[in-house]
Amino acid sequence: MAKLRKIKRVRIHREGGKTLVGCLLLFVLVCALVNALLPPVFFYIVTVICAVVYAGILNFFRCPIRRFQGDTEGVVVAPADGKIVVNEEVDENEYFGDRRRMVSIFMSLVNVHANWFPVDGFVTRVEHENGNYHKAWLPKASLENEHATVIISTPDGQEVMVRQVAGALARRIETYAHESEECFIDEHLGFIKFGSRVDLFLPLDAEVKVRIGQPTTGNQTVIAQLSKKK
Predict the structure, then answer these.
(1) For a FRET experiment, which of 9, 64, 115, 230 has its CA 20 to 30 Å from that of 109?
(2) Taking 60 as the threshold, does the pLDDT of residue 6 lie above it?
(3) 196 an active-site residue?
(4) Model-level pTM?
(5) Of 168, 68, 73, 173, the residue nearest 115 (C-alpha)
(6) Catalytic residue among 108, 142, 153, 196
(7) What pLDDT does residue 7 have?
């Protein structure tokens, strides 16, 4: 599943369109009212505050266009920007019913919140579950929080689970994956608004390349190498 790799660019994610337009109109209205009703000094202060807040929102919805450099066969790349908060063996009973290697990435408010497919393959299952909004780095958040689960079968038949998990502030998970469709590294899997996390469930014999606390770059950092099936 080789693909042409292109240079990196940055754009605004489509999920931010309505939010950015709405916030811009609101801030313009607020500044206009302040300018009409209060002394000039208040207008300057409010304008600066609005500009800083809007820059933060704009930064949140940035969407780098990244291309993974190298062979994608058997490679698992980071599905999100953030930091590794979990790397351990767990019992995965929601789908696999066996032991899996769980690697989790916590996404803070300053991280890019676009999510990428971690492997090339074929989407076999997509599910969305409503739930609570615990802090995303807590272990119970993986199952108890609102989450979306995507199962991908790699070209050699290995299965990888990706779980998008809402955080304490997140109230919306977008998943672009569809069952019975091919997926590729470099393509967007979805988007999560505000602080959140993404879990990966890998076969136990996968060679994990990251450590707890390590920062990750979505679609760039190599998380693991899957073993070749005999």
Answers:
(1) 9
(2) no
(3) yes
(4) 0.77
(5) 173
(6) 196
(7) 41
